[in-house]
Amino acid sequence: MNQKFIFILAILIVAGLSACGNSSAPTMSADDVKASAVANAWAAVTLTQAAMPTSTSAPTAIPPTHTPFPSVVPFPTIPPLQSTVPAGNPTADPCNDVPPTKPKGATVQIELVNKSDGRVSPLSFGMVAPNSLGECGTYTFYLGNHETSTQTVLAGCYWGYGYIDTPSVAKTAEYLCVTDAANVAAIWISNEVIGFH
């Protein structure tokens, strides 16, 4: 029994010493390193491609066409309120057209003052009736917030209509007649009314 015990003890000692011995770490060959790098690169490419969204529409050969802006809403007809105003319709031709660039009739200066809470974009200022030479037209002005602008217009009576970006609409309560070339008429645009000041 003693011999068996010594034999088992000797096997255990040999097994213990071999387990505690100095073992070197396994090394990779250059081919193994290269193969691992290639495998990692392909895995990254595969994951990137899988994460990209797929196209749901076929590419078009012709670019989309330009969509024009909506047309301008026509201005309402404002009935005359004073008996001294010449008869006429503010939406009738030629007063709805652009005024002449070099007028032959008398001109006056007006000072437009924006007293509204926003920009006036645009302010339409149209003649009620043609002058004695048949000249007529509707002017278009743009005024920034609290801006003042001096303009030269044909002498005559006008209606006014302005879109304000607050949002609100300003319009004349009566026709504004500007016929005195010696005076600059001050016209104020508030949030709702366009009138003399």
Q: Give average pLDDT, whole number.
A: 81
Low-pLDDT residue intervals, each spanning 5 or more residues: none
The coarse silhouette is: rod-shaped
Order of helices and strands: HHEEEEEEEEE
- If helices are DSSP runs of H or I spanning 4 or more residues, what is the number of helices? 2
For the termini, the CA-CA separation is 131 Å
Structural category: alpha+beta
Q: Characterize the main sheet.
A: 9 strands, mixed
DSSP E strands, number: 9
State the helicity in percent bands: 10-25%
CA-based gyration radius: 45 Å
**Range of strand content:** 25-35%
Protein described:
With 197 residues, the chain is an alpha+beta fold. Helices cover 20% and strands 28% of the residues. It is built from two helices and nine strands. The N and C termini lie far apart (131 Å).
Give the topology.
Blueprint: H1 2-19, H2 30-51, E1 107-114, E2 120-127, E3 138-143, E4 148-154, E5 156-164, E6 168-172, E7 176-178, E8 185-189, E9 193-196
